[in-house]
Write a structure and sequence with these properties.
By secondary structure, the protein is an alpha/beta fold. The chain has helices spanning 47-54, 81-87, 109-118, 125-138, 144-148, 157-169, 187-204, 215-221, 248-255; strands at residues 4-17, 20-33, 36-40, 62-65, 68-71, 74-75, 92-95, 175-179, 207-212, 224-229, 232-238, 282-283. The radius of gyration is 20 Å and the shape is globular.
Length: 288
């Protein structure tokens, strides 16, 4: 990793409740360079909240603290809302899980992509439209001129997700946060979308945070993997080593996956250990 884009040091996110503060993210630390970093774990482990905190898109009731949260030398914790609006979309983009809830249902998709580009670049409407059509073609959409004029409800789930990727990548961001970008897609379309995302990220030399439940997909697609449990990072390791992970929680997740070469009547259910909430993060090359 030649260049560090994102530094997260001791990030905690809590929410006040009737019985005290609930810690959703508990003092996590990691860095991201121009690479593909996967974040995996069960629902409620803090994956999406971590991604949203980078863009300061957590709920207003969230209590966010960190020793350091910086992007390309910019202190995100101290950044004003005006500064964050300059960063969001332009320097850091976020691809959300379901395009049905992310696209404006009343605007044609081409106009939404054009708007995303013109928000950060001073160009004419025609130049932005040409850029949007080229971006639709880059995400392998046939007949982009026709798709440009469609409304969100007129496109399929796979095409909608490609449109979302086009919209998020058209400003040419340095860091992309993809939150379950393929979970609503069938296997064939999922592979196509991942190939497109990989090509665009690699060609532009961007960093990618890929949030997912799918351990096999992350092992195949990413360079590094962060395994989260109950708001903590249990293990930080190279993606190629995921299936040889040493932390008992990561092993439990892997053992709960169905396998053709090892059929079982009942899949294993991970057993939790309270010591995981205070134990150290295992990293590649670290002692178990």
């Amino acid at each position: 990793m030649a260049e560090t884009l994102l530094e997260v040091d001791d990030l905690s996110i809590g929410f006040a409740g009737a019985h005290g503060t609930h810690q959703a993210v508990r003092g996590i630390s990691f860095t991201v360079g121009r690479e593909k970093v996967g974040i995996v774990g069960e629902s409620g482990s803090g994956k999406s909240l971590t991604g949203r905190s980078i863009l300061k898109l957590t709920p207003k009731t969230a209590q966010v603290s960190a020793k350091r949260l910086s992007f390309d030398g910019i202190d995100l914790l101290a950044a004003s809302e005006r500064r964050m609006r300059q960063i969001r979309g332009n320097r850091i983009s976020m691809i959300l899980q379901d395009p049905k809830f992310s696209l404006n249902p009343l605007m044609r998709v081409g106009h939404q992509i054009t708007e995303a580009y013109r928000l950060h670049h001073r160009v004419s409407r025609r130049a932005a439209q040409d850029k949007a059509l080229a971006m639709l073609e880059a995400v392998k959409i046939r007949n982009p001129e026709r798709v440009f004029q469609l409304l969100p409800h007129e496109v399929s789930g796979g095409m909608g997700q490609r449109i979302m990727i086009a919209m998020m990548l058209i400003p040419e961001p340095d860091l992309i946060i993809a939150d379950e970008p393929t979970s609503a897609l069938d296997v064939t379309v999922r592979r196509q979308v991942l190939t497109i995302l990989d090509e665009l990220v690699s060609r532009r030399g961007a960093g990618l945070i890929f949030i997912s439940h799918d351990l096999n997909l992350v092992a195949d697609f990413c360079d590094r993997v962060l395994v989260m449990y109950a708001g903590r990072i249990m293990e930080d390791l190279a993606a190629r080593d995921l299936h040889n992970a040493r932390h008992p929680y990561t092993r439990a997740l892997l053992d709960s996956l169905p396998r053709l070469d090892r059929p079982v009547e009942t899949l294993a259910v991970p057993a939790r250990d309270p010591a995981w909430l205070t134990g150290p993060t295992l990293r590649s090359g670290a002692a178990a």
